[in-house]
Amino acid sequence: IPFDSGDDYEIICESCYERREYELSGKGKFESVIEIGPIEWKNKVEKTALNEYEQEIEKLITNKADQFLSQFYYKDYLIKKNIDDKYINKLKKLCCLNNDKEIKPSKYYALIKADIDDLGKHFSGKYLKEEDELLNFQEKLSSRISDLGFNFEDNLDKTYDNKRLCIYTGGDDILFFCPLYKIFDCIRRIDDYLIEVQLDFYQIIIY
């Protein structure tokens, strides 16, 4: 699809076109997956120094539809864009402030999908001893599954600075982005929520 931002004209895919139109309309901004990888790094570096670095970097961002602040956390990106060496030195200093060894932000993240095994059979009453209890059982099970998705999504957003890491929670299906260093913590949380909403007797499958 042809897209004209005023400063540039290019052919882009439909998804990118919709994202840019949405952001340029002033309605808001989509989070980029590039924001997920460096979450651990941002939690480790000195906050005041990070804020100062970000304020300086924001002045260099000329195309907000295509450039993200997190891209400037990576030395190779600065070099690729021919950014002045003073910013490369500031980044290196920032990465070493809290540790003698340089702390580098990760570029990677996980995409985690989970669902309850054999849920359809449970809903059908296959494992229910008393058939006349089926309707009541289905209502309770549906309510618990709804609580599972809502509680997990809400907690996930609050844990990661309100970043929208959850793609969807529908029925027993959960799909979300996760920083690599928090994979096992997130899996444990899913197990905890199963217990909290009394679904711990079901086996949940995580991909």
How would you portray this structure in words?
With 207 residues, the protein is α+β, with helices and mostly antiparallel strands. The chain is 45% helix and 14% strand. The chain contains eight helices and six strands, in the order ββαααααβααββαβ. The chain has helices at 14-24, 39-44, 47-58, 75-80, 85-96, 119-124, 134-159, 183-196; strands at 2-4, 9-11, 109-116, 166-170, 173-179, 204-206. The strands form two sheets. A four-stranded antiparallel β-sheet has the order 4-5-3-6, with helices on one face. β1 and β2 (9-11) form a beta hairpin. The two termini are 34 Å apart.
Residue share in β-strands: 5-15%
Terminal Cα span: 34 Å
How many helices does DSSP assign? 8
The secondary structure category is: alpha+beta
**Uncertain ranges:** none
Please give the largest β-sheet. Answer: 4 strands, antiparallel
Give, in spatial order, the strands making up the sheet with the most strands.
4-5-3-6
Name the average pLDDT: 79
* Count of DSSP strands: 6
Radius of gyration: 22 Å
H and E order: EEHHHHHEHHEEHE
Into which percent range does the helicity of residues fall? 40-55%
What global shape is seen? elongated
Compile the SSE list and pairings.
Layout lengths: L1 E3 L4 E3 L2 H11 L14 H6 L2 H12 L16 H6 L4 H12 L12 E8 L2 H6 L9 H26 L6 E5 L2 E7 L3 H14 L7 E3 L1
Antiparallel strand pairs: 1-2, 3-5, 3-6, 4-5
Condensed summary:
With 207 residues, the chain is α+β, with helices and mostly antiparallel strands. The chain is 45% helix and 14% strand. A hairpin with a 2-residue loop joins β4 and β5.
